[in-house]
Design a protein that fits this description.
The chain is mainly alpha-helical. It is built from nine helices and no strands. It comes from Pseudomonas capeferrum.
Length: 193
């Protein structure tokens, strides 16, 4: 039998992560044991522990990866601005696409964040704040609200960008993107005057 190369091992592990994510999303993170998780992804519990010391570490990795992808959407917005295009339109399209590609990660980040350790929650909160601050600087650079109001505005805008695609998925993409843009532009204009 030929040796399994690193790319094949990596692809196999990615498939297993997707299977783990689906199980968490279906049953709820707290309802899945490591033994059940290992059986579901086709590994022994020992092999699973080799990759992740705990379920929390796996969940943290999945949510952290989502925040890294969200951070990357900001770079897409910056490039759109550099081309003279609307950063907001680009961000809305990027979030719509990311939600289509990773709906389970969004669900886990929203529903199961509380299952992580305090230290992990603090680290993810820091990643989210960085993302939210970058988002606000990009789409509302002239915002002049007091500190807490500005943070709250950034949080609401990020929440809308991250949840509206899931709420509007029954609509055709073009209609959903237009509705998202109208909702966000209206909110930004009224809030940040």
């Amino acid at each position: 039998m030929p040796p399994v190369n690193a790319a094949m091992r990596c692809a196999s592990f990615e498939e297993r992560r997707d299977q783990a994510m689906a199980l968490f999303a279906e049953k709820g993170f707290g309802q899945v044991s490591m033994r059940e998780l290992a059986a579901h992804v086709g590994l022994t519990a020992g092999s699973l522990y080799h990759h992740f010391p705990s379920k929390q570490d796996l969940l943290y990795d999945l949510i952290e990866e989502l925040y890294e992808e969200l951070q990357a959407t900001l770079e897409q917005g910056r490039r759109a601005m550099a081309r003279g295009a609307s950063a907001l339109s680009c961000l809305i399209a990027a979030h719509w696409q990311l939600h289509a590609e990773r709906p389970l990660q969004f669900r886990l980040a929203e529903r199961d964040l509380c299952c992580l350790s305090d230290a992990q929650q603090v680290q993810l909160a820091s990643l989210r704040k960085r993302y939210e601050a970058g988002l606000l600087r990009l789409i509302a650079p002239q915002a002049k609200l007091p500190g807490q109001a500005l943070e709250a505005t950034a949080h609401v805008l990020a929440t809308l960008l991250n949840q509206l695609p899931g709420l509007l998925k029954a609509l055709p993409q073009e209609q959903g993107l237009e509705l998202m843009e109208n909702l966000l532009i209206g909110g930004i204009e009224r809030t940040l005057r």
